[in-house]
Amino acid sequence: RVLSFTLAILCILLSSCANNTASEGMLLLSDKSCDFTIEVPNSWTVDNEYNMLSAYDKNDMTNVKASVFSLNEHMGADDFFEQYKHNFEGTFGTMNINAMEETTLSGVIARHVFYTVDMGVDSFNCQTVICVNRGNVYMVTFTSTPDVYDSHTEEFEKILSSYKFK
């Protein structure tokens, strides 16, 4: 009986350590195809795709996309971003880098890129955090129109701080 009781208490303690709930005012995004979790404001609309967690503010279409890709070769975050930038420019148009800085994503060194995109009729302010970890590249991208961008940057910082590798 003591062993059963001890095992029951241990199971309760271990399950309480696995945080499967979101912070107050946030919604936990997770999917079996992704080996990470992220939180977004609970007023946002979830729009997940395979290997990507996505949500947007339905009031102004500001969005966050978090994705993971397998790397076929050894490359760092900066190398991956150069490839990403080249492909992006070839598909959509002008991309202007405003700043690049080192940061962390769930405690792993990452690259934080601030940029604007001009797609002819529409323009967007964006931030992408790129992290290479466990043979994969992880990206979190925040996109907003210039008129509401500043009002969402604090939310994006909170979203980034919630990112956890499983």
How would a textbook summarize the main sheet?
7 strands, antiparallel
Strand order of the largest sheet: 3-4-5-9-8-7-6
Report the sheet-strand fraction.
35-45%
Amount of helix: 25-40%
What sequence of helices (H) and strands (E) makes up the elements? Answer: HEEEEEHEEEEHE
Tell me the distance between the termini.
34 Å
The outline comes out as globular
Which features would summarize this protein structure in a list?
single chain, 166 residues, alpha+beta, seven-stranded antiparallel sheet, three-stranded antiparallel sheet, 3 helices, 10 strands, disordered N terminus
Summarize the structure.
With 166 residues, the protein is α+β, with helices and mostly antiparallel strands.
Task: Break the fold down into its secondary structure elements and pairings.
Blueprint: H1 2-17, E1 26-29, E2 36-41, E3 45-46, E4 52-56, E5 63-70, H2 77-92, E6 94-105, E7 108-118, E8 123-133, E9 136-144, H3 149-162, E10 164-165
Antiparallel strand pairs: 1-2, 2-10, 3-4, 4-5, 5-9, 6-7, 7-8, 8-9
Structural overview:
The protein has 166 residues and is α+β, with helices and mostly antiparallel strands. It has three helices and ten strands, in the order H-E-E-E-E-E-H-E-E-E-E-H-E. The protein has helices at residues 2-17, 77-92, 149-162, and strands at 26-29, 36-41, 45-46, 52-56, 63-70, 94-105, 108-118, 123-133, 136-144, 164-165. The strands form two sheets. A seven-stranded antiparallel sheet has the order 3-4-5-9-8-7-6, sandwiched between helices. Mean pLDDT is 84; it is low at 1-19.
